Amino acid sequence: TAPVPEAAKSKMSPLAQDVYGAMAPVAMKTGKWFMVADKPNGMLHIFKEDGSHALSDPTLYGKDKGDVLDKVSSLEGGPKVTPAGKFTMKESPADYAGKTSLIFLEE
Question: What phi and psi values does residue 18 have, to the nearest 5 degrees?
Fold first, then answer.
């Protein structure tokens, strides 16, 4: 297992730390950035190809299949309800240094 970077540890749930420890060694072999979805803490943690912490940001995760997006849902306050459904990710060109963004598409 890999140790969780100190910069990320305080932001990650124990479960997310376990996931990092188990998957980081495999992910780092790809030479690509990777992420850990931390549903218990409502966070998405992004790591560089060497396993170092890049950023952590609040993220909304659906609780039930019947969840619907309410017009007052936000990261700042209000109901934390996300859309239900099946989504795929598509690469899209971007203007920032990484040159690629990921877009979620509902199937």
Answer: -65, -40
Record the pTM.
0.63
Contacts of residue 13, defined as CB under 8 A and 6 or more positions apart, other chains included, come to 38, 40, 41
86: pLDDT strictly greater than 80: no
Among 59, 10, 64, which Cα is nearest to 38's?
59
Residues 6+ apart with CB under 8 A from 21: 1, 2, 3, 4
Alpha-helical regions (H) of 1-107 = 6-9, 14-29
First CA to last CA across the chain, in angstroms?
Answer: 35
Q: Judge contact between 48 and 35, C-beta under 8 A.
A: no
CB contact at 8 A, 73 and 81? yes
Give pLDDT tens digits for 19-78: 999 999 999 999 999 999 998 888 899 999 999 999 998 887 765 544 555 555 455 555
